[in-house]
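User: I'm writing a short report section on ligand binding and want a predicted complex to refer to. Could you take this sequence and zinc ion and write out the structure as tokens? A short remark afterwards would be nice.
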Amino acid sequence: MEATVGVQMDQPLAFSSPRDPLQTDGLKKHEQNFKLPGVKKDIEKLYEAVPQLGNVFKIKDKIGEGTFSSVYLATAQLQVGPEEKIALKHLIPTSHPIRIAAELQCLTVAGGQDNVMGVKYCFRKNDHVVIAMPYLEHESFLDILNSLSFQEVREYMFNLFKALKRIHQFGIVHRDVKPSNFLYNRRLKKYALVDFGLAQGTHDTKIELLKFVQSETQQESCTQNKSHVIMGNKISLSGPASKELDQRSPTKTSVKRPYTNAQIQIKQGKDGKEGSVGLSVQRSVFGERNFNIHSSISHESPAVKLIKQSKTVDVLSRKLATKKKTVSTKVITSGVVRKTGSSCPAALTCDCYATDKVCSICLSRRQQVAPRAGTPGFRAPEVLTKCPNQTTAIDMWSAGVIFLSLLSGRYPFYKASDDLTALAQIMTIRGSRETIQAAKTFGKSILCSKEVPAQDLRKLCERLRGIDSHTSKPTSATQSPTSPDKISEKTDHETSYLIQTPLAESSGNGLCKRDSNGCGSLFDECATNLEGWDEVPDEAYDLLDKLLDLNPASRITAEEALLHPFFKDMSL
Ligand code: ADP
Ligand code: MG
Ligand code: ZN
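Assistant: Sure. The structure tokens for the complex follow:
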């Protein structure tokens, strides 16, 4: 895989503005006190699709909607006593049965304690699956970001590590750690890691079903094994049946999509009356949200890729940029994919090595397939460069990006719609040389046209937060971070991006400016204390540095993070 990215970087800061309305994911909380007609319809449809829900729940509202699920708030009179609030996650009917079962198994085996969401029931009718979980009312990260006290940030991170330690102990790599998947109830100081829809297992995972949702190469070998897994008495799974398919593909490329005919039987919580029905599935088992899966087909006809159109995409229709520096990066990987996948293969040299061209040898290489799930801005460098050997360390990187947002007051911090842009943005914070160096350790060679220095994390965060470290006084934080503007894309093999970023601009966009009394001017939430923020201890930035370690092998683990001096006097 080779690609070039050109990113203009003026003042490398955060890559999003404070309170960027484009970046809220899911539905806004408490959006309206009335139900939208669309929501009402969706609720009716859900009752129709899974009628047994009506016997137990009153579905009140839709609280989340993603690509692969919709989440509803419901109430239930489960036992004698008060009504209970339940979150109902309705998975899209095309979700792969093994994916569904694996998500459920993560919740049932690892969930229910240490800030990991548990599950109460699961319902199924035909291809509709609904997971019922305890409902945790939670804040919108963006809404509270600039009003959190420093102590709250400490608690937030501590509790996130607690959840990560728990799932990592089970050999679960979450792969999508971000604020919307870590629910936070500020008042109750309750936390819950949710959404195992993209989770994968480590090589020694204790979650049986995750063994079937690993990398594509591993997956192909798994098609040989018939398996029958019984988990508790909730899920039984038979299959997978090996079958080549993808009839929808006009070229009839024989890309193996295992498990397609797997049958899944998910019994209803207590009475388990629902029978077993085979689910037909159109989606890959990976739960790859960015459809990276199709890259596996590309080797079939590299020539087609070559002549693939050049398109220019306006990522965000934002202000046009002033040109300053351009940094272009290129990631080179050897086309050799080792069967064992024990480590990334070392880069082979060829005609185009260390140039910004892509030679014919490289063009004919099979694109490396590696799991790449998650949200670009939270992806670790080894994910962005498609290192096939990914570990729980990728979740720690994502936690580091959350911490970076908390310390800088900017969310999302990295805003990139593609991996190379995300990588270039990481370079502007962590340094290009450092990034290149680290990538070497996992077998990736990155070319970068300009050298950008690593930033001092404290200075960066204080500047973004608008706190002058010398006077400990808040300054007006007017430096708006850069944002991508224009991307031009060529082929899969040679992708070149041009991202124009505006110079730090005046903040007319809703940053919570604090006056010297620590009062916010724009939002209620800002009326919080500056307490703690004027003297953020070095330990905070030391921990941040260890989370954003470019080298996954030395990156701090969740268990270690909990013992970090930043959390001294906090107990598990
Ligand atoms: P998706 O795979 O679509 O992202 P999630 O499991 O992340 O699904 O759920 C989407 C959203 O629904 C979450 O961001 C959260 O706002 C809400 N949600 C999910 N589970 C719960 C829960 N148990 N309690 C309260 N809200 C929840
Ligand atoms: Mg989610
Ligand atoms: Zn080459």
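A remark for your report: The chain has a mean pLDDT of 70. The longest helix spans residues 150-169.
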